[in-house]
């Protein structure tokens, strides 16, 4: 079996990725938010052009799967009409940013995120997966999520921090994006084809003192399904949003917008807290700590089916569970208590590690896994 192919880029709308069931077309919501009519329109497109499910990614993006090549151009036209498509493919690829989801309209987070969007053209050439985090709310929520440059809350101050550095530079809102662009240029001058992420550069080269000195604020409490000041939060098993169920939930709750997160949670802005069949409403549900990629046959590199066995094992595995179709481990980059990795139709078992780590056991069948004790 040949080694899985590691892509150096993520799919977009203009540049989709080919998978086992067709194209994967990614939509990047601006400021992590879609108006209600955009959500309903995207649900309709998922059923018309895709497989009827919208994927919520760990980059807080939305994906349609199963799109056929012949339909791609028509889908782009529809996305543009919904206001969900960047006119320039280059801008789409640069708009790789996480925004803390509990911001209020026109607050500091919203202003910084919008200014960065408006000035993306000033950034230097950056690797495709290079990303930004705007984490400037009362509490830091994005510290564990992938980003190369972070604008985040310090103690009574806003700081700009290079990923991989423990401290950052204090900035004012008026010059924060200027400094962010300058830090991106420093990275561009010191990166290479082999060193393509900020943390890698920082590990190999001394970060100038100008970009350091102030510690970020403590990490805030993780969000859970339930009520919030902006509206109810719901979970999505494996990040899957069935289009019809989402449409019905949006309409029944009378939400004005949907906000997305990188944690398989979504928020119905201004919506009523109602029952949500098909979605997770209990923060203790083990499915929320269970990761599984699309698996075979949807991904051509996966060597096993994944989500069926992940559902079956979720209540039996203490702690976090990751079921990966191959050693790439796309669904979860962090270690899990139990990781199962597909190999030639069977599973390798890793404890307290990642999909690419050395397994403790190899060649386990589904039948064996269903009778094992995971302690």
Describe the protein in words.
- With 375 residues, the protein is α+β, with helices and mostly antiparallel strands.
- It has 3 domains: 17-87 and 223-269, Sulfite Reductase Hemoprotein,Domain 2 (Sulfite Reductase Hemoprotein, domain 2); 103-211, no CATH class; 286-369, Sulfite Reductase Hemoprotein, domain 1.
- The protein contains 9 helices and 19 strands.
- It has a 5-stranded antiparallel sheet. Strands 6-7-8-9-10 form a 5-stranded mixed sheet. The protein has a 5-stranded mixed sheet with strand order 15-16-17-18-19.
- Strand 4 (53-56) and strand 5 form a beta hairpin.
- Helix 1 (36-49) runs antiparallel to helix 2 (72-81) and helix 1 (36-49) runs antiparallel to helix 7 (243-253).
- The protein starts with 16 loop residues before the first strand and ends in a 6-residue tail after the last helix.
- The model has no long low-confidence stretch (mean pLDDT 94).
